[in-house]
Amino acid sequence: MELVLFISLAAIAIVAALGVIMARKTVYSALFLLVNFCSLAGLYLLLNAQFLAAAQVIVYAGAIVVLFLFATMLLGGGEEARGTSNVKRQTSSVLAIVLAVVLFVEVGYVLVSGTVTGTQGSDTPEAIASMGNVQAIGKLLFTDYLLPFELAAILLLIGIVGTVVLAKKKPEIENRKSEIGN
Amino acid sequence: MIPSSYYLALSAIIFVIAVVGVLVRRNAIVILMCIEMMMGAAGLAFVTFSRYLNSLDGQVVVFLVMAVAAAEVAVGLGIIVSIFRHKETTDVDEINLLKW
């Protein structure tokens, strides 16, 4: 049963990932991205990470994809001109795919050669189930990972400020230019 | 239980697809989407190790990466919108003002 779920979710994730990079319209790419994130959330559930599955749907599917859709619609998600006429673009595409295959073979070799191991921790599924997944993550987040947690808060604040600064128009600069001009 | 290599292989496949997207596509928004997809693939690998090594640290890292991804998308799209105001395009080949 687990294997069936894994294979179907994995197939959906891969097809959606291919859809993101092959869809002609940006809106379709964003919707394929949504499918990809939702199937990743399903895989998180299979991996016993219930909190992350919920957070994945809320943060990625709920916030990030909506942001992408807003930006696409603001900028008019027109179709991308296919680079069939430009030889330089075509060669760079071929080169990109060759490099990607090389990367995949390297990663695959590392996985198959079985060098990926580590020391076992104490958070077995039974131990997590005894106090709940959210509580276990929260405890870790507020003890061992307190500094990264606080830094993430500052990062989000900087993100908000930066976005506002980038998005607002700059009439002061124009005024100053005209003043200097006068 | 499914072998961990299945999950890691899936993570690698999605990551490589996203890399191809970044290299081949020229729309800046789609490139940003592919970067998000890479983060998702890396997150899957983190959660896989977290599950198979019986340690919750991987899940905490993915949670923090989600915060980084949200901030990154907000700022990235802000940059793309302000570039669009100047140049009326989101094609990365057209955005070459800093090219020497």
Structural description of this entry:
The complex is a heterodimer of chains A (182) and B (100). Chain A has helices spanning 2-22, 26-46, 50-74, 87-112, 125-131, 133-141, 146-167, 171-181. Chain A is 78% helix and 0% strand. The relative contact order of chain A is 0.06. Chain A has 8 helices and no strands. Chain A is extended, with a radius of gyration of 23 Å. The N and C termini of chain A lie far apart (76 Å). In chain A, α1 runs antiparallel to α2 and α2 packs antiparallel against α3 (50-74). Chain B has 100 residues and is mainly alpha-helical. Chain B has one domain: Helix Hairpins. In chain B, α1 runs antiparallel to α2 (28-52) and α2 (28-52) runs antiparallel to α3. The mean pLDDT of chain B is 88. The chains are: A mainly alpha (182), B mainly alpha (100).
Order of helices and strands of chain A: HHHHHHHH
CATH superfamily of one domain in chain A: NADH-ubiquinone/plastoquinone oxidoreductase chain 6, subunit NuoJ
CATH architect. name of one domain in chain A: Up-down Bundle
* CATH structural class of chain B: Mainly Alpha
